[in-house]
Design a protein that fits this description.
By secondary structure, the protein is an alpha+beta fold. The chain has helices spanning 141-150, 168-177, 197-212, 225-236, 247-259, 307-323, 396-411, 416-419, and strands at 2-7, 17-23, 30-31, 36-41, 46-50, 55-60, 67-69, 73-79, 112-113, 215-223, 267-270, 275-278, 284-286, 288-290, 293-295, 298-299, 336-340, 359-363, 367-373, 376-390. Strand 19 (367-373) and strand 20 form a beta hairpin.
Length: 423
Amino acid sequence: MTSREFRLPDLGEGLTESDIVAWRIAEGDHVELNQIIAEVETAKALVELPAPCAGVVTALHAREGETVSVGAPLVTFELADSAEVGEPDVDEPAPPNLVGYGATAEHSGRPQRRSRARATTPTTPARGAADRRPERQPSTPPVRVLARRLGVDLESVTGTGEHGLVTREDVEAAASSAAPRPVAPRPSADTRIPITGVRKHTAAAMVASAFTAPHVTEFLTIDVTPTMDLLTRLREHPLAEGTRVTLLALVAHAVCEALGRHPSLNSSWDEAAQEIVQHGVVNLGIAAATARGLIVPNIPDAGALGLLELAERLTELKTVARSGRTPVERLRGGTFTITNIGVFGIDAGTPIINPGEAGILAVGAAVRRPWEYRGEIALREVLTLSLSFDHRLVDGEQGSRFLAEVGALLAEPGLALLTGGTR
């Protein structure tokens, strides 16, 4: 018999550590090649780790909830005789096996991202078979989002779809038949939550941005009644059938139009080269609140998309983000960000710029208010836009003109017919 020590691989983006979210194995288990052995959380994504070999687990070197550095030991396997050839021995240490460690049988063996089913707490690594988690019910990301929103445990739902797939109807039926959940008792002491994963990364990025880029924030309140009327018509139009067109999609379309004429807002500051980089495409970041914290995935070359395409990409982006499966490559390379605070009923704010970008636009709630309209007071749909920009890259005039143009496109959406084609 030969032993092999498996170490935490480099999961990309230069990340130096990961948190152990859940073990899928216990000491004494026999595992197969490419069997998922653990879920780990990086600063940007939730990742499944496959076994690099077949064998028996003789030691787990970290507990659930523990932070592990890249290259640190995770699992020790005792290999079967047939698997000994070419495998490093623990007594003769090999370099950490990082990206590309997986075998090619069945699939590539690279880490796979998936959604996080529930919060976990540190436990001892050795667990018996009776203590292991049951297999998750098959379901799609939108159904898992719905289940979390309705408080339904998918593992208790019998799927009626093909091959036992849990459908929206299954979740809604389970929610309607469930007994009222008991009210949790108020905590009698402080609760301490470790700062890890996305929360740790976001905190560091926001502090760096706030103390590196000189922020300026401007506000513009506009009458968006024409845009809201257009939105209603689009939702009922046959050409938009199957596509969920939202106010955010119309704002994103207006932002992409305006960025084409205001390149300073679609630029970044290269401190090392002492250069301002004006980006040739708009990689539009959308701030997304998830169970793991705030992330900003982006839509590559969003400026080249029509309204319906942009609406579809936004729906996909939000669904994937909430499921915890956003690819790391979609979390880098953004050039401008939109944050939709209106969904929380908030009118305005002072958003912090995503590091490496020149600006961020916060979209407030659209509400009916008394407003001057054609010389009279009328109830109109009104919202406030809040633009923060890096004053090293954007002068006050440039920021103001950009914000005014976005506002004009939302106040009179037909103006896009005059400005289109310049992106």
